[in-house]
Amino acid sequence: MSMKKRWFALFTVPLFFVFIVVVIVPFLTGVYYSFVSWDGLPKNPMKFVGFANYAKAFQDTRFLSSLERTTVFTLITMVTVNVLALGFALVVTSKLRLRNVGRVMIFMPYLIGGLLLGYIWQFIFKTILVYIGKNAGIGFLSKSWLSSPVPAFIALIIVTVWQLSGYMMLIYIAGLTSVSADLREAAKIDGCTESQVTRSIVIPLMRSSFTICLFLTITRCFMVYDLNLALTEGGPFGSTVMAAMYVYNKAFVTKSYGPGQTEAVILFLFTAIIAVSQAVMNKRKEVEA
Description:
Strand content: under 5%
Shape: globular
Largest sheet: 2 strands, antiparallel
Strand order of the largest sheet: 1-2
Oligomer: single chain
């Protein structure tokens, strides 16, 4: 074995081992648990039930409702996040004086953990906005948004968009800066305006950035839990219980570990199919720069 391969193995093998122990083994164990009836307590025996848990999962109307709710949440958030992130990227890559300050300010919300972010915005929605609404006579702010189903759902979307837009902006910035300046200059010489260059040349050449951002947004939104827990706790009346929260409550709160793990596997497969499908379709349409 050459020295290069030895160094490669030295750095790769330990990480590969950690990946197997931390990711692969727990995943396969979880798949096994989806075929048993168990309450999660080590002292109680497991009972193999085959695909019975999967049959029950597709008859669980509350789980299906949470999955439908999460799909709507993901669709709205995905579109909003990527539109704003692309807009921010176009602004901060322009010749504005404060573009670097803008990058930092827009990206900063992503650095805040989901739990902390949720509690901060819970205080904003319950206290600050209500105070402003009552004193300024603004009707829709005079009552906490988190006390009604539809406003609470909208609040969850707003906070998620506020958190993710900055991170996606960085990926779009990387895509924008990777487009050759010679192509832009040649298009302008041919008489194209700045907006025409952006629409017809820059955006088609950065399709890989769209693929990455859509994939990350979809997976993050379908698996949202910490922000959901801290901001709304699934309320009011269970109207904002996303699929990940429902699965967690099923497994660990109601002590239905087997069925809960089954629904977790279904959620994973559902998310993976959607995310990978869009990635494959966008990959085929990518334009070589």
